[in-house]
Amino acid sequence: MEHNSSIYREYLRILEQELVPAFGCTEPIAIAYAAALAAQTLGERPDRLLVEASGNIIKNVKSVIVPNTGGMKGIQAAAAAGVVSGRPEDKLELLEGLTEEQRGEIRDYLQTADIRIQKAGGCRTFDLTVTVWAGNREARVRIADSHTNVVLVEKNGEILRTAGTDEEGSQAEAKSSLSMEGIVDFALTARLDDVKQVLDRQIEYNMAIAEEGMKHAYGANVGKVLLAAYGDDVKIRARAKAAAGSDARMNGCELPVVINSGSGNQGITVSVPVIEYARELGAGEEQLYRALLISNLTAIHLKEGIGRLSAYCGAVSAGTGAGAGIAYLLGGGYEEIIHTVVNTLANVSGIVCDGAKASCAAKIASAVDAGILGYYMYRNGQEFVDGDGIVKKGVESTIANVARLGRDGMRDTDREILDIMIG
C-alpha cells in the first residue's frame, strides 16, 4: 500500500481512533463521562440525576465493578463517580485519578442525591442521556453510537452543542474502506514508525492487566483454571492470559487497557494471544507489530457491520482477529488469514452477549480457541465452504452475513436477554 495514499492515512486514523486507553469497563465509564460533563455544564454539583440508557448499556453496566470506587457496581455508582470526579476532559480515563477521599464522597453522594434510571426510547443500541438538576437549574448531555460521541449539550433549555459527529463521521467513512485484502496489504507494508506508539501502548497496558489477572484472584479465574486443567502449551497460555485480563478488568482491577471497537475486553482479546504467540515463537518486533495490525483491523472490520453493542458477543470478532494475527505469526499469508477468519466465524458466531461480567473471560477463551483452531484447520487442508450455514463464497460475503446476523437477526434475542437480566 502506498504510504502517501488516502486509504493508508484512513487506516492509520482508524487505529488512532479505535485503539485508545480506557480505565474500566467502557459502558459504566461512558455513564460517568456523561454525568461529569453534565455536572460541569451545570456549574455545580447536582442534587438530582436522570440516566436514560439503551438496553445494551443497562445490560453491560449491571454486573461490573465501577473502577476505583472500592467495589461499587451499577448505573447509580457510575453516574455518582462521574459527578464526583469532575474530570470530563479525561473521557474514558476520568476515574483513574479518584482519591480515597473522593471514594468516600461517592458513597455519601449516593445517599443524598436522587439518581434515577430509565430505559431510553428509540432503536439505537448505544444511546445515553444524563440530565442533572440543582434546584430549578438543569443541564443535559446525550452520547450516541459510541462511548464518547457527544451529540447534545444543553443548559437551562439552551443548546450549547449539537451533533458532535465530525469525528465519528470521519471514522465511519474510514471504516467503510476496510476489507481483508486491504487490511493484509496495510499490515504488511505499514511504516513501523507510523504505528509504533499506538501498538506499544496496547502491548504495555494489555499485557500488564493479563499478568495481573494471572497473579491474583479475580472473578471466575478462568485463566488459572485453563492452565491447571490443560497445561501451559502456548495454545492454552494464549487463551488463559486473555481470559485472565478480562477477569481482572470485570472484577475491579484498577489498571487501564487499550480498547478495540469501544471494548476493553475486545482490546485484550485481539492483542494478548498474539503477543503470547510472538513471544513463544521468538518473533521480532516487526513481526509482532504486523500481526497486531492484522488482528486489530480484522476485529474492527467485523464489528463495523454489527455495531458497537449487540446480542452478538464481541469476543467472537476479537477472537477471530487474534486467530488471523496468529496465522500470520505462524507463517501464513493472505489465504491462510482469510480462511482462518471464515473457519472461526463458522464456529462460534452463535455466542450471545448477556452483559459485561465474569463469564466474559470464558467466552474470550472459547473465541480465541476457535481462532487458533480455524488456522490449524486450514493448515491441515480442512475448511468450511459456501453453503455451510452462514458461510458464503468469499471472505467478505461471510463477514457481511455475520454482520446481518449480529445487527438484524439478533435484535429480538437482545430484548429477551435484557428482559431475563432485569426481570
UniProtKB/TrEMBL annotation:
GO BP annotations, alphabetical order: L-cysteine catabolic process to pyruvate
Transmembrane segments: none
Listed InterPro entries: Ser_deHydtase-like_asu, UPF0597
Domain Serine dehydratase-like alpha subunit: 155-419
Pfam families: SDH_alpha
Single GO MF annotation: L-cysteine desulfhydrase activity
Family affiliation: Belongs to the UPF0597 family.
Protein name: UPF0597 protein DWY69_18510
